[in-house]
Amino acid sequence: MERTPKPSTSPLSVRVGSPTGTSVSSDLWGLFLEDINYALDGGLNADLVRNGGFEFTGSDHPGWGPLTGWGLPDGPGGVEVRSAAPLSMPNATHVRLSAGTRGGRLTNRGYHPEGIWLRPGTYRLRLAARRPEEEGRLVARLAPTAPENQGSGQELVIAGIGDGWSWVELDLTCDWEGRSALELRAATAQVDIDMVELRPLDPDTGAPALFRADLVQALRALRPSFVRFPGGCVAHGYGLDNIYHWKNTIGPREERRPMPNTWGYQQSMAIGYHEYFLLCEELGASPMPVVAAGVCCQNVPGGPQAIPSARMPQYIQDVLDLVEYANGAPDTRWGAVRAAAGHPEPFGLRYLGVGNEDVVSDEFEDRFGQILEAVRAAAPAVTVIGTAGPKPYGPDYDRGWELARRLDVPMVDEHGYRTPRWLLQNLDRYDHYDRRGPAVYLGEWAGRSSTVRSAVAEAAYMVALQRNSDLVQLASYAPLLARVGSTQWLPDLMYFDDRGVLPSCSYHVQQMFAEHRGTEVLACDVEGATARPQPLPSLTTIELRSPRARTHFTEIRTDALVLPDTTVEGEQVATLAAGGSRLELVASRVSGDQGFVVGFGEPGSGTVHEVRVGDWRNQSLVLSRRDDGLTDEIDGPHPFAGVRTDQPIRLRVELDAARITVWVDDVLVHDHVDDVRDWPDFVAGATAVDGTTLVTLVSAADEPRRIDIAIPAAASATAAVTTLAGQAPERGAPFEAFPSPPTPAVAPVRGGVVGVDVPPWSVVTLRVPAQDDVAG
Ligand code: AHR
Description:
By secondary structure, this protein is of the alpha+beta class. It is built from 12 helices and 45 strands.
């Protein structure tokens, strides 16, 4: 039975005042779209065939090859992987199907082991084919994969396949709903096939769908002002050879170069730069390409590498050509390429990201500076966005900002995946930024889980972003999309499977803000709000863990106690009562390949600090803080030679109020002053547009509250109230649609005051006209 919350006794009121003088950036809320979690192939790309180009390799994913994703129901006979005389060099691998032998049949179940989810309708099969000798005939069939599914496969013959590569198309109908497969077999002698696609026909236009309709509809509902693409890490790539080069992703599909994805799969490039631009257009959003700043991602063995100086002029020219592709008239070189692709009108590129949370090194500075200078000269109207590392603090953050100020970069991309507690403790972060420097683009951020707790904290943070919108001009939650069962990163804004979209609680928050856009910020004062205390670091209990290893802990002592020797393995946790302000121990790994974790905290406070020795592939030292079960790094990662079996490590932790100092083998590693500021459990913000007042209330309290909101601009009117109420902070999970989406209601405004019931852990928006539309 659900607990019925009792109303809080503390009176709470909100007073909306005059404009503060801050305009709300018209582009404030946008989307971050990266090919992570199968967001594109297997997601937005409406093509239902997996590995239709037969180009998968072990570089995409260990064990993969040209026939990954394909079934050979009759065995390998009659199916030959070839690359001689290919359709194109970037997509050289193809398959020869031979009739008359045992085999010769290929099936594709798309992105789900049990089959493609088909619904009644028509699907366009498109592939490249040729016959090596006699006349080629291919049989294509859609069929349910499970015997219990209703429906029978329809078989169609593609005849007249010629002796050179040509494109053939066929419409296949389906009159059942369920898991299904596409089957292809040679009906006569031999047929070579490549670039197999199966797309549903759009019921309105009759054309094969480029994007998956339900996903586009869910994105449109977010009313994004901009779409950032293609990453994230995908933009700067896993190594120099993996940097995303836009020119390899445009033009005829077969000329696009598929590439291993930094997230462990292949990008076919069926959605390349041109399609990204088309998607922006479809969503009514400004395109925001992000190009590598001449360096690749730092998370590769050996660290980041820079494009050699001699190759930089060509790389810079490619960036300038991208701007021309997007904005040039059809009579320019790259504008003509765009026009030839069916889009004579420019795409209206206004933002260009250069770099993605890179290590800001001398090489980075050099290459970033060259690109900036070239774009400035060639396209002064384009806003170049610099980068400030992966975290909202730290050496790359500091150096990235210093560089941006020095070079007068107009905007800086900050990233911050942080816990709800961090977000609530940092609502004033942008209140104190220097307004004379670059503007902020909060390019990747999220509250670390798909729960109400995270979504509510995100809403509170968005109120603060909006209030600081003169400075924070753009923001995008990340990542955007995740296919259930194929996810590399959590949390994500929208989950999806073959059958539909599963919006998270955070999605509803983003949508509420998207629909609730004002043009000017109003003063908004809260009276009677309560604050929750953040505990000081504490050694009252300690927790010992050893993920991916077995570790024996000895000589465990605090300034108050000597504790027993303890052995832990994997996720097993040993909790010991300790106390005092100094902890020492010796950790000896017995087996395994990583290090160990020592946690400490006050039971019941919800907060545990953790020293992680041999974190991230046994390569780093990290101090982190876990609040309400969600973890943030708070110091590090610092490079570390690694924990070795049978080489004991001596650890010392000292606490002095909020200060935490940690020594590993007598070397000082962490010297950190923890953030122990209280955090508010109620936040309010207000904006106005065309005489209508827009109020947002965010409650992170466990009790419901009745709140009076004074809105002097609206003496007597009816407020439209939208409530997203989660009831419990831990409600909501990845891979599920959040069960209670926002609900609408109305509330009367009398004498400039409107009263609303604010449920626990909720987000409430009010739209209050100056007066009701009497004519209507
Ligand atoms: O959003 C997922 C990843 O997070 C991005 O690719 C990267 O930029 C960040 O580390």
